[in-house]
Amino acid sequence: MTANSAGPEIERLISLLARLPGLGPRSARRVALVLMKRKEALLDPLVSAMQDVGRVIRTCSVCGHVDTSDPCTICTDARRDPATICVVEDIGDVWALERAGVFRGRYHVLGGLLSALDGRGPETLGLPRLIARLGDGKVTEIILALAATVDGQATAFYISGELAALGVKVTRLGQGLPFGGELGWLDDGTLTAAFRARQSVG
């Protein structure tokens, strides 16, 4: 299928698919071809599911997670420990930790990391939201579950500095988290080891 061998609707589908992580133009064309060949079994249900999600998706005003309700189901789950908040870079990290079953507290999603190269400064982290959650004195520990990268370490250092005067314990994931490792790509065993070996910051 060349650039001009399909109608504009199909080319638009391919173009949108190519924007997804891990898919380039060639992979996007292969996916589009499979979807079109299996219209009733794959394409139609996928369109319906995406429309349903588009209607109900919400960003949690408390933690920044994405769910179908605001506050999200994790924030409103009475079985979870409100004294511990795990700070993560992105929603995929929440999913990874939930899959591993290693954490039963609440989350705070930053939505990114500090990066001078990408122009992301402290104002992009949404720290006022996190600090506001500490106001009632119920939170006793903040766990920084950030990637073991330069940006992740810089972000952890900055957050720990901002929280230093608030009297809350700040820890970070310990051994088991390889340098350069991003949470969403780690196996359950590695995540569990990193959580159990978490260390105080500062």
Q: Report the span from N to C terminus.
A: 57 Å
Q: Report the biggest beta sheet as strand number plus sense, adding barrel if it closes.
A: 5 strands, mixed
Q: Which geometry do the CA atoms define? A: elongated
What fraction, in percent, of the residue positions are helical?
40-55%
- Which architecture of the largest domain would the CATH scheme give at its second level? 3-Layer(aba) Sandwich
Can you write the helix and strand succession as a string?
HHHEEEHEHEHEHE
Question: Based on DSSP secondary structure assignment, what is the total number of beta strands?
Answer: 7
Q: Name the beta content range.
A: 5-15%
Q: Which residues form runs of ≥5 with pLDDT under 50?
A: none
Backbone CA Rg? 20 Å
The domain tally reads: 2
Give me the CATH fold name of the largest domain. Answer: Dna Topoisomerase Vi A Subunit, Chain: A, domain 2
Under CATH at level 1, the class of the largest domain stands as: Alpha Beta
Quickly count the helices.
Answer: 7
If you average the pLDDT, what whole number results?
85
> Structural class given helices, strands, pairing?
alpha/beta
**Spatial strand order of the main sheet:** 4-3-5-6-7
